[in-house]
Write a structure and sequence with these properties.
Helix content: 25-40%
Bound molecules: 2-keto-D-gluconic acid
Largest sheet: 7 strands, parallel
Strand order of the largest sheet: 8-7-6-9-10-11-12
Strand content: 5-15%
Length: 322
């Protein structure tokens, strides 16, 4: 790869100031100070004017955008570990490189998974709304009783970096019995025990937490049949991707009390959320906050910047995914 002098870097969304300044110091940066979402036209213009596009989960980098006539961009530096917002096959075919930002958001996302487990189990969102609405009439022995987290069984779908970080928190911090199923990981680690099938995990777990990428083969992995394999007292947690869950089937499973609750940070049609979910008290809904800490978002920016530096200097990327 050839060196690029003063590369043009389009940053599609507003990212933490400190990182924007670093990018603007080193490159011809085209920032988005008003954080105006970029539509197809703007993304195509970016592909024509930039050497590198630093894009985010909300930017749908389709084949049409990647194959924009007169395209100049040769790297999509994705601001996130997941990259299902990018048509990877089209990028490969067009010779456009793709990088992501793994590792730096592992702990923050795992913390949020634990947050959803605790909020859903202990009805924290419900309680918060109850107090804010002025309905609370005072303590009573059976008021808003939740379910224990400590000592319960946590089932992980996928056993990658984030799932392992969750294991440490849940097992060491909450004394939870952790099991998992991951077709690529046969052996246990960190106190987590493997199960031969996803169904085994679903049937045994009090909490099922999803930690797999959004791929064609994981689309609607949690469908009606699998939701039906969970315990009636079971709680589903999703900090991975909305596509992994058939949201309509989840609504039905909750309405029919096939499962007891859900804690969701991601949704099939973000930012749209099924109206039925919005009206359920036994569901916690968060706006894709997995990595939403200043420290993490800055680290994600710096990780993307590291890949951009390597690219423009003609070196191999650190986090190449295509
Ligand atoms: C990011 C995420 O906030 O990293 C991911 O895959 O979902 C989040 O951490 C999001 O991707 C921003 O682009």
């Amino acid at each position: 790869m050839t060196k690029i002098a003063r590369a043009v870097v389009v940053v599609t969304r507003k990212i933490p100031e400190a990182v924007e300044q670093e990018i603007a110091t080193e490159f011809d940066a085209r920032l988005n100070p008003n954080d105006t979402p970029m539509g197809a036209d703007a993304l195509q213009e970016a592909m024509r004017t930039a050497d590198v596009v630093l894009c985010c989960v909300a930017d749908k980098m389709t084949a049409d955008i990647i194959n924009t006539p007169g395209r100049k961009a040769k790297l999509l530096a994705n601001y996130g570990v997941g990259f299902n917002n990018i048509d990877i096959a089209a990028a490969k075919a067009a010779g456009v490189l793709v990088s992501n930002t793994p590792e730096v958001l592992t702990e923050a996302t795992a913390d949020l998974a634990m947050t959803l487990i605790l909020m859903t189990a202990r009805r924290a969102g419900e309680g918060e709304r109850h107090v804010r609405s002025g309905q609370w009439t005072g303590w009573r022995p059976t008021h808003m009783m939740g379910t224990m987290v400590s000592g319960k069984t946590l089932g992980l779908v996928g056993f990658g970096r984030i799932a392992r970080a969750v294991t440490k928190k849940a097992h060491d911090g909450f004394g939870m019995h952790v099991i998992f199923h991951d077709p690529l990981v046969p052996n246990g680690a960190l106190g987590a025990q493997p199960r031969a099938s996803l169904e085994d995990v679903l049937g045994e777990s009090d909490f099922v937490s999803l930690h797999c990428p959004a791929l064609p083969e994981t689309r609607h992995l949690m469908n009606a049949q699998r939701l039906g394999r969970m315990k009636k007292s079971g709680i589903l947690i999703n900090t991975a991707r909305g596509d992994v869950v058939d949201e309509a089937a989840l609504v039905a499973a909750l309405q029919n009390r096939q499962i007891a609750g859900a804690g969701l940070d991601v949704f099939e049609r973000e930012p749209k959320v099924a109206a039925e979910l919005v009206n359920m008290e036994n569901v916690v809904l968060l706006p894709h906050l997995g990595s939403a800490t200043l420290e993490t978002r800055e680290a994600m920016g710096r990780r993307a910047l590291e890949n951009i530096r390597l690219f423009v200097s003609g070196s191999s990327l650190r986090d190449r995914v295509a």
